[in-house]
Amino acid sequence: MNISRFFGATNREAMRQVRLALGPDALIISNKRVNGGVEILATDQTSLPEDGPAAAPARPAPSAAPRPAPPSAAGPHPGLPEADLMGVIGELKGSLETRIDELLWGSQLRRSPQAVTLFQSLLRFGFSTALLRAMLKRMPEQLANRAAFQWARNELVSHLPVLSSEDALWQPGLALALVGPTGVGKTTTVAKLAARCVRRSGPGSLVLVTTDTYRIGAHEQLKIYGQMLRVPVHVVQDVHEMRRVMQTVRPDQTLLIDNVGISQRDRYIHEQAALLAGAGRAVERLLVLNAVSHGDTLDEVARSYAGDGGTPLRGCIISKIDEASRLGAALDTAIRYKLPIHYVSNGQKVPENLLFLSAAELIDRALAPAQANRTLYAPSEADLAALLSMTQPADSPDAAAERRRQQILLPQLLTGSSRGDVLSLDQLQTAVALQDEDSVLSEAYDLWRSRAAGALPSAAEAIEHLRRVAHGSLGDTQPALVVHARQSLDWQGRRGAWLGAAWFDGQGRPLAAAAQQAGLADGWHTPSGARLSAPSAADALLSQIEAEGRDAPAPVLHVFDGGSQALMRTLSANECQWLAVSSPRARVYLDDEPCVLSAAVQPLMYRPLDAQAFWPLLSAASLEDAQPAWWATTGRAELRVRGEPDLPVRIFSLRAVDARDGRLLKAWFAVAGMAVDPDPVRMARALVLRQECQAAWRQAVPLLADAGREPLVDRAVFTAQMGLAAWRLAQDPALAPAARAAARMLGADRLSPRHAHAGLLKLFALKELLSA
């Protein structure tokens, strides 16, 4: 194939030379600006090879002769090698594809503000622009912010490769080598894997090998681990020693190989790959990725080790996630290079700091908010807005007119009052934006939207997600509160009971609904399945407390109503923090004398609580009109039952007194385990929140009983989250603009707790309307 090069002062002049020399059907290969003008590479079909399937039919040569090029330019140069031609064509194709890709991506960002927000958020979590662009191009349009974030989470979960189960790895005869750069934690990880292997099959099932003879003390460190586990350790330096060791290993024994750390830019990386490939036994390789490393570094490591000429990488282990500010880069690398994640390492302790996590757990860890971190290496919303504004197309007159029409008519339609005043469109948009910013409301909106689409998630799936949301909102040491409430239920003409739980933070803010159970005459329904006979009230409550206390990231105080002595003794024996709302006539022992609870607290000194004790509640216990003063006291007593040792407990009383005339408005009594912090503010807040949660779910019961085909327990999770969201909408001062908009859409000036659920549904409908 002959390639000709043409030069002209302008593009038109260069193209005229091409047409004169090669005719109107010339094939343009490249067109680029150079110093002094434009350079074009071109060919014609007569120069295509005639032998082979791709040969083109011959045609007469053009009658016109080539025009000489200017003296300063090289004329046509036939005979350019075909390899160079294919390289030029490849570069041209790649350039065009990149340009088209950029145009499509920029167009999508301009059309979808949600894509911009999501792109910026995921960049902050450490994911690469390459992965995000490929993923967000498939994002459905018209998704709200929370729905878009949930869609992205599901996409990441579905594409993140993970080991299906630990049993899939630990097969008899496994030979496994850890590879990676220096300092990523290979030796410590080998020790952790060795401990797991010994725990599964015993010390006789394992042999350790190290090729690390470069670092001082490296093989001595592994030998120490080997002595602790009572397994042999071999040191090898070349392929011959490796083969000799392999001959001593039984076919059913597991072999773990610790390798010297090699930089991804070191030529020895290929020699190490050849050493493992020539071991005389199939050796699986796992790449150890350091979660602390920058994304570009991880990409370079994965690319180098994947292309080192050795056996294909089986997957990866991510180390040092406890030191990393962001986990996204490591997960991004695993996705793009299709490296199934086998384990993650979260510390130096052997063997406990090695976790086997599912894709959902890994993604949720990566997307967990890290409020203390300053995002210095990701564009802010202002940065992206500035960049987009540079290419934002001019608004069409029709679109501008439609917006003006919406600004005038929509507020009048939704929020007009008899006085003639209306909320502005900006106020309605603020109300919608507050829903996206509040996790309780946004999670309720997601469930509401899923149910409207006929795709309400299962109770198990929804609770697992909501529990992660709650855990992610808690600090490492911030105390948490789980409220357990029981409601009567009328389900399609059948009476029963609904037992639910919800998470609150230490300040009393609701976080998410938790475990839900429901019982009817035909059986007891839970997220894990149904059973024919209902458990006792104490057993049902105990199972719920155990479920929510498991893997909690912070100390948890469980609050419930009543409860038997057997339940209280079980919880105390398990060192669980519990507080039971009790009757004033509950029997306790004080100074070895039996008495009722109300009498036991009388000699105690009541102390006033700070006015901010129940912040951020607009009202507590429906006493906002009375302007109450709060008084509390706490002491110690005992519970006794025949045949059991005495159970020491804390007793607590809370009183609401009318500040104007000293009249007692309401009194609460409770018994708590000795593990509970006797802080009266925390105990008072727990009692009031349990009453508030009970009232919120009582108002939400109609949502549980209305028509629908979803399973009862699935609907219970939906109802519990909606109840929390409605209560928060009516109670939290931060949501006052949203509550006002909801009230105005109901024809009222103020959103009462009784109408909060109807107002919440109006807000959700408004969000859909403004997002359309």
From TrEMBL:
Residues 46-81 are annotated as: Disordered. It is a peripheral membrane protein. Keywords: Bacterial flagellum biogenesis, Bacterial flagellum protein export, Cell membrane, Cell projection, Cilium, Flagellum, GTP-binding, Membrane, Nucleotide-binding, Protein transport, Transport. Residues 59-73 have a biased composition (Pro residues). Signal peptide: none annotated. The keyword Cell membrane applies. Belongs to the GTP-binding SRP family. This is Flagellar biosynthesis protein FlhF. The gene is flhF.
